[in-house]
Specification:
Length: 269
Amino acid sequence: MKKLIALFAVSALASTAATAGVALSGAASVSYDDNGSAASATSYDADITLVGTAGGTTFTYSMDVDRANPATTAADMASTIGPITIAADMHQVVESTTDDGDGDAKAVSDDTGVTISLDAPIGDATIGLDNSGNVTVSGTWSGVTVSHTSKKAGDTTTASAAIAGMDVAVTNKAGATTWTMGTTVSGVALTLASSKKITAAFGLTGNTMTVTHNPAVVATASTVTTHSISAVKAYSTVAISRDLTSGAALSATYSSLDDSLTLKASVAF
């Protein structure tokens, strides 16, 4: 009997040790959309994420479980050895290639790969190299975070900083520049993007209202690699969200695009 008790104690200790480095999180929601003049619809979403850590190595695995056959949505591993970090993206995302007017790619690209980064002692810069031959140099200097990636399809440079209470981010990709600016005025969080999208968030955490103006989308012809983009008129959305004592959150979103109202109940852990 004593041997059985001792064996059970060892087994319990081993189980505890095995799960000590594992974190579980997830989220689920149900939404009802009246779709304006179209037929109403109810949709569901449920996701689970597992993060396992052993020393300087972390593995993250995510699943979409609101279906008969749960599907993997992410599988990533990162390991740090001294100043070197090796990151591997092991999941091939199933991308949409449907010609539905939103500019989907005509062919699925391979987004798996391995990146090796070196935290070099050059003004706190980090140098990275991935298996596609792309080289990235990033770091923060005088409060400004800058990242530059050199690749065959066109270099990408990003910069972000908080200046006098304003958050500014600028991206230049293959010669095309986009930017966003955000600040808070009298408790209202305002965001403006180069695309002319404007967002204003009112209230406190757990009880907010967000008003967004979405600019018109200009029709674009298809290219060798992407489908065409259909024109969409400018529209606005108003979203009201409130956290409940039960741990769930309720939100209601109205869109002037199709005069629709979406009600959503969600929970995250």
